[in-house]
Specification:
Layout (H helix, E strand, L loop, with lengths): L1 H21 L4 H18 L5 H18 L1 H11 L2 H6 L5 H15 L1 H14 L4 H28 L3 H17 L14 H5 L3 H12 L7 H25 L6
Helix pairs in contact: 1-6, 2-3, 3-7, 3-8, 3-9, 3-11, 4-8, 4-9, 8-11, 8-12, 11-12
């Protein structure tokens, strides 16, 4: 068990603490995307969508933290050849994912704290609602981490990872109704938004805060679909990723 946690801590030190201490300017990158869209939506709606957008910024941060792992893993794998050493060690893919996942959360701590402060100020919600949102965020983060890991094993160069990030970010956080209610999307385009798991994460969060009202059946179905998305990509990441063969 001690060796297991030492491997996790090593990932945190290598992937997040090193960059945060030596290159603090990189932390601005985690702040810009969620806050810039939050500002645009707030100004465009004359402040009426600020609470919804604040929840959306949390979701975007979770997705951004998870999927950005592919760039970090690509750098460690292709540039520093660190993954070669990890693969030849007793470390499993699951341990590697966990360590890197926690490191991405550590890296995002300043952004998470700021977004939580904004949500506590502008989003009026019960304790049960916050617990619901917590599980919602953990689930979409797990999905994003699994997706990021899987894509990193397919990438042969960090430039390719940047291309993946450029595609994934708008598909998961900008185009879907993350910063605004899905009711703002007219039919039949609304059906397309349900192809993204972040749509379900946003509906859960917005329902918990009282901005979208889901019936009991719809609420349960939304959770089931989000869990299904997460389990599917998690299994793919563990079973289909090129891990030992690299």
């Amino acid at each position: 068990m001690k060796r297991y946690w030492n491997q996790v801590i090593a990932s945190i030190l290598v992937n997040s603490i090193y960059a945060m201490v030596n290159y603090p300017v990189v932390l601005i990158n985690t702040l810009l995307a969620p806050l810039s869209i939050l500002a645009v939506v707030t100004f465009a709606s004359h402040g009426t969508l600020l609470p919804v957008a604040a929840l959306g910024a949390l979701i975007m941060n979770m997705v951004q933290s998870g999927t950005s792992m592919q760039g970090d893993l690509s750098h460690l794998k292709n540039d520093m050849k660190l993954q070669d050493m990890v693969v030849s060690s007793p470390t499993s893919a699951g341990t590697y994912i966990l360590g890197m996942a926690i490191s991405e959360l550590v890296y995002s701590i300043p952004t998470i704290i700021l977004l939580l402060i904004l949500n506590f100020i502008f989003v009026k919600i019960t304790v049960i609602g916050w617990i619901t949102i917590l599980f919602d965020m953990l689930l979409i983060f797990t999905f994003s981490i699994s997706l990021g890991f899987f894509l990193s094993t397919l990438s042969s160069d960090i430039v390719q990872s940047w291309a993946f990030s450029g595609i994934i970010s708008p598909l998961l956080t900008t185009i879907p109704p993350v910063y605004y209610p899905i009711t703002y999307i007219p039919y039949p385009w609304r059906y397309l938004s349900y192809l993204s798991p972040t749509t379900y994460a946003a509906e859960i969060a917005q329902n918990a805060a009282g901005y979208v009202h889901l019936g009991t059946l719809d609420f349960a179905l939304t959770w089931i679909i989000l869990v299904a998305f997460t389990v599917f990509i998690f299994v793919i990441a563990l079973k289909k990723s090129r891990w030992r063969e690299i």
